[in-house]
Description:
Blueprint: E1 2-3, H1 9-23, E2 33-34, H2 46-54, H3 69-74, E3 78-80, H4 83-93, H5 96-99, E4 102-104, H6 127-145
Parallel strand pairs: 1-2, 3-4
Helix pairs in contact: 1-6
Bound molecules: 4-nitrophenyl phosphate.
4-nitrophenyl phosphate (4NP) binds near residues 3 and 119.
Amino acid sequence: MVCLGNICRSPLAEGILKEKIKQHRLDWEVDSAGTGYWHVGDGPDRRSVAVARQNGIDIRAQRARQISPKDLDDFDLIFAMDTSNYRNLINLAAQPDLSEKVHLILDLVFPGEGRSVPDPYYDDQGFEGVFEMLDEACDRIVERWNKL
Ligand code: 4NP
C-alpha cells in the first residue's frame, strides 16, 4: 500500500487489509510505504489513528518508510493511493513485468476511471471518507486475489 507520506492513507489501507486478512484467515503479508521521505520513522497521523480506532483497528504501531525498488521485487501486488503515486511507482518499476504488479487502488472499485484516494493531510474532514473508500477497495482486493 503506497501513498506520498505513508502517514495518512497507506497506513489505513495496511490496517484495513490486515484486518480483512485475519477475518478470512489468509496467509498474506501486507506492508505500506511512501514515495516521499519526509515522514520516515513517524507513526501514522493522529487523524488516521482516530478513524481506524473508531472502526476497531489499531494502527499505532506502524512506522513510515520510503518505498524502495526492492519492494517491487518482494511484493506480488502494489497498490497506489493516487495517480501521482501510481506514476512514480511505474517509473520505479522500470521493467514491464514489475509495472504489471502496480494497481491504482480505486480501480478495484471504479474500474478504468482512474480515480485517486484524496490526500486528506490538509482536510480534517476527509479521513472518514478515505477510510470508507479503502474499506471497499480492500474488500474487492480480497475477493479478487483470495484464490492465489
Ligand atoms: P499521505 O498524506 O500521503 O496519505 O500519507 C500526506 C502526508 C504528508 C504529506 C503529504 C501527504 N506531506 O506533505 O508532508
